[in-house]
Amino acid sequence: MHLDLVKLEKKFQSSVLTKIKDPLLDQYQIELWMKRDDLLHPIISGNKWRKLKYIFDHVLSLKKESIISMGGAWSNHLHALAFIGKTLGLKTSGIIRGEQPENLNPTLSDLKDWDMDLLFVSRRDYRQLRQYKNYNELPGIHKHEYWLPEGGAIAFSLSGVQEMVAEIDHKFDVICVPCGTGATLAGIISAVSDKIRVLGFSALKNAEYLYTDVAKLLFENPQPRCTWTINMDYHFGGFAKTSEELLRFIDAFERQQGILLDHVYTGKMMYGLYDLIRQNRFQPGQRIIAVHTGGLQGKRGLE
Ligand SMILES: *Cc1c(COP(=O)(O)O)cnc(C)c1O
User: What distance in angstroms lies between residue 45's CA and the mean position of ligand 1's atoms?
Assistant: First the structure.
């Protein structure tokens, strides 16, 4: 790996396993642990480091000067990308969905502070950009630039996620993760053994296409041996949509466990997981790991 990346990672905190204590878990005889990728770095959101690590390594080895990617106005992906780019001395550009707001929100101001070039495009144009899947495919791209599709969901993103799984030094039966593009889920699927059940929770509505996307990401890997499914029932109306009930759940969880949850990904996953436990969807004695993928910078959107 490139030395600058090694140096950056040396400053990280370790992502420990935290045992969740809750009478509900005792009642259903479930052992629940959280893999705390939210602790890795105060700015670089958990799974975004896992996904971007080997992408940056690849970009550096290609001797590119800049990375262009895309995301929403609260994008954890662009937030991590801009910060890592700034740290490594690589230029970054972000194509942002929607009109430029009069006042930049905290996420967009951070991107600016870290010298990311921002280009605001209509929702329609934004959707169009999703068709470009390869690093040199973006129309008008220069030789020294690297195009990274939405969410960094390319095959290179799986290796870092596999490292996250390898760190888990505890036996478990089920592993849960929230899904946006499904790349983190794909990384986990490609890394666990055959007896493990992998459960993704979609943060988006109408996300059945995730099955195809995840299968495509897994294509270059050996066929997965585990059982994996994506639960579609806990999107709360769509991406980044919330409800009183969800916010109350997050608030109670944070107070009881001392672990912050974002309302876009991990909050919805934990709500869903608790709900499934109550529906007896796990067997007594099972050990579950829920991956805390970070995303806490996005909580500023709730204020
Ligand atoms: C981006 C993100 C996800 C989704 O990851 P994918 O690999 O795109 O599925 C989950 N949780 C958090 C906190 C994220 O920022």
Answer: 9
- According to the model, what pLDDT value does residue 236 have? 98
> Tokens 């005792």 map to which residue?
26
Q: H helices of the chain, where?
A: 3-10, 23-27, 46-61, 76-88, 106-113, 123-128, 157-167, 183-189, 210-218, 244-257, 266-278
Among protein residues, the one whose CA lies closest to atom 2 of ligand 1: 180
* Separation CA 14–CA 148 (nearest Å): 27
Distance separating alpha carbons of residues 300 and 190, to the nearest angstrom: 33
Check residue 286 and give its pLDDT: 98
Residue 159 neighbours by CB under 8 Å, 6+ apart: 53, 54, 187
What is the per-residue burial (b if ≥16 Cβ within 10 Å, else e) of 61-93? eeebeebbbbbbbbbbbbbbbbbbbbbbebbbb
Q: How far is the CA of 181 from the centre of ligand 1 (A)?
A: 7
pLDDT score recorded for residue 219: 85
Which ranges of the chain have pLDDT less than 50? none
- Compute the distance from residue 52 Cα to the ligand 1 centre, in Å: 12
DSSP string, 49-81: HHHHHHHHHHHHHTT-SEEEEEE-TT-HHHHHH
Residue 124: its pLDDT value, please? 97
Mean of all residue pLDDT scores within the chain: 97
- Count, residues in the chain: 303
247 contact partners, CB below 8 Å, separation of at least 6: 263, 302
pLDDT 10s digits, 38-93: 999 999 989 999 999 999 999 999 999 999 999 999 999 999 999 999 999 999 99
Q: Which residues line ligand 1 (CB under 6 A)?
A: 45, 47-48, 76-77, 151, 153, 178-185, 262, 265-266, 293-295
What is the token pair recorded at 159? 């290796």
